[in-house]
Amino acid sequence: MTEVAAAPASPSETVYRVPDLKECMTRLGDLHPRLCPRQVLGVRIGLHAGSLLELDLPRTDNLLLALVETDGCFADGVSVTTGCWLGRRTLRLVDYGKVAATLADLKSGRAVRVWPHPAARARAWSYAANAPNRWHAQLLGYQLMPVEQLLCMQPVQLQIPVARLLGQPGPRELCMGCGEEILNQRALATPGGPRCPGCFGSHRYYRRIGAFHLQELPASEGQRTGARPTRSQA
Predict the structure, then answer these.
(1) 3-state secondary structure labels for all residues of the chain
(2) Which domain holds residue 197?
(3) Which of 42, 107, 123, 159 makes the best surface tag, with the fewest CB within 10 Å?
(4) pLDDT greater than 50 at residue 52
């Protein structure tokens, strides 16, 4: 476990454009009816990761990839701070059930994982002694705590190539199992033709109820999309 404090910049160092905490919390207020401690953690983790990677935030390009390890308001805190969103394909959920995030600079190849210090909850009381309860102590304390008291970090190397994570939005293939379109190079090659992950193995998260029959595509449409003749789903 490694703890790193953000060092003040010297006059000769490059100063990176980073939003302040208040600005990020204001943006979060537009998304959520109330703020919570995990949102603050998402903001602080995003800010710290951007500082460690020496990047301007929030990003307006697609050169920063965020992998969050839980969903919910924590992920929104990371998004508001970094500019990484599901809609921009720069945010990925790796559901480990952990309040943690890995930020990867796609230009330099550097990546850093940041998560709360195990003692952060207890330490929050020292910065919010008058809070009425633990929840409010964390809400305020997480905003005031020095980064070395709040967060841990570790440089990491992604095990999955970034190109595979992102895929390409253009190519399209039809799954020979269900006949549905597959995007972003997620099709899996099989002897019987391309299949989606759900048809390839035990990865489908839903079960169809009742019979389902695919309609044959008109010849002209099949030629236009490069579709193969579809088959009834067993």
Answers:
(1) CECCCCCCCCCCCCCCCCCCHHHHHHHHHCCCCCCCHHHHHHHHHHHHHHHHHCCCCCCCCCCEEEEECCCCHHHHHHHHHHCCCHHHCCEEECCCCCCCEEEEECCCCCEEEEEECCCHHHHHHHHCCCCCCHHHHHHHHHHHCCHHHHEEEEEECCCCCHHHHHCCCCCCEECCCCCCEECCCCCECCCCCCECHHHHCCCCCCCCCCCECCCCCCHHHHHHHCCCCCCCEC
(2) 167-234
(3) 159
(4) yes
